[in-house]
């Protein structure tokens, strides 16, 4: 991000009353920009390019024949990358235009069993009719849009079958407090209030002309995430930190840029 955020009125976890509406308007407007961007490169994806980070398939393991739910799936590239590996996938996102685009993309690549559902992540259990999954997957840039990680972890636990697991791959919260060049700390790692940004464009096209530019986000430390999962009854199998994979930071910084974890629900 290129501008300094302002703290929302008050410093509780909920943020401004319209945080969800502001964020949804922002994402809805950016869907067509992302679909035509070189960042997502849909022609290459349709031709067979994989959108997952190099370590993700190895850490998740064989997904053939397993049911996988992707929370906050956006336009579905990661969801469909798991489908190409044999999983029966469901993608869920609060943006109707994103879900429509994901469904169209599934048709283009022949992922006939993939389905996409429009719902807020906190409403996922109800929206999916109580269905549970072998794997719940959450990819990069998702948790910053959620004010309540404890509620998120409980939702994940409710969506897993006994013996199923969460796989989370996310931008490292340390990297998120760094400047664009990675050389300075710009934000407080321990800030837990809502952060309000007002920025035109999008990470996929910085020069794009946009109108819905206000977003509300939250920083979540690794300790906060792991503790929430433990409180929800999930057992941590591993937590790995990686020195590459951040969309905006250069390589060779010798700092953790992303992290991944797997947490299992008891049988």
Short key terms for the protein model shown above:
267 residues, alpha/beta, Rossmann fold, 7-stranded mixed sheet, 10 strands
Explain this structure to me?
The chain has a single domain (6-38, 63-265), classed as Rossmann fold, CATH 3.40.50. Helices cover 29% and strands 22% of the residues. The chain has helices at 19-35, 42-46, 56-60, 77-84, 96-109, 124-127, 149-159, 173-176, 222-231; strands at 6-7, 67-71, 88-93, 115-118, 133-138, 160-171, 195-198, 214-217, 234-242, 258-265. α5 links the parallel β3 and β4. The chain is globular and about 45 Å long. InterPro entries: Methyltransf_12, SAM-dependent_MTases_sf. Keywords: Methyltransferase, Transferase.
The biggest beta sheet, please? Answer: 7 strands, mixed
How are strands sequenced across the largest beta sheet?
4-3-2-5-6-10-9
Mean pLDDT: 93
Helix % is 25-40%
Instruction: Tell me the number of helical segments per DSSP (H or I, 4 or more residues long).
Output: 9
Low-confidence stretches: 6-12
CATH T-level fold name: Rossmann fold
Order of helices and strands: EHHHEHEHEHEHEHEEHEE
InterPro entries: Methyltransf_12, SAM-dependent_MTases_sf
Keywords: Methyltransferase, Transferase
Domain Methyltransferase type: 69-166
Protein name: Class I SAM-dependent methyltransferase
Give a nutshell description of this structure.
It is built from 9 helices and 10 strands.
